[in-house]
Write a structure and sequence with these properties.
This protein has about 100 residues and is an alpha+beta fold. It is about 40% helix and about 35% strand. A 4-stranded antiparallel beta sheet has the order 2-3-1-4. The radius of gyration is 13 Å and the shape is globular.
């Protein structure tokens, strides 16, 4: 099994609106991308300066499933939106 974790820092402009839209778009991928086995989308409540605004934790059967997800047209639509509203992101991929 593969875990794919991404953390996002959003730009200040329309931040709350963009966070909620991104969360909704990401959660919709569970029904749209067959290789995506599960997804958790979390909105941050920490006030620490190192905190990120939104996190996703996804699972796939294998690396190929992650690659299929990464290139799926519905995922690419979400990526396009998120890239326009975030200032930074971090990723971690690992096998469990």
């Amino acid at each position: 099994m593969v875990k794919h974790i991404v953390l996002f820092a959003f730009k200040d402009e329309n931040k709350q609106e963009n966070l909620l839209k991104a969360k909704e778009m990401l959660e919709a991928l569970v029904d749209s991308v067959p290789s995506l086995k599960s997804m958790e989308v979390g909105l941050n409540f920490s006030k620490e300066s190192r905190a990120m605004d939104l996190s996703i934790v996804t699972t796939f059967d294998d690396k190929e499933g992650l690659e299929l997800y990464a290139n799926h047209p519905k995922h690419l639509e979400v990526v396009k939106f998120i890239k326009s509203v975030v200032s930074e992101s971090k990723v971690s991929d690992y096998i469990i």
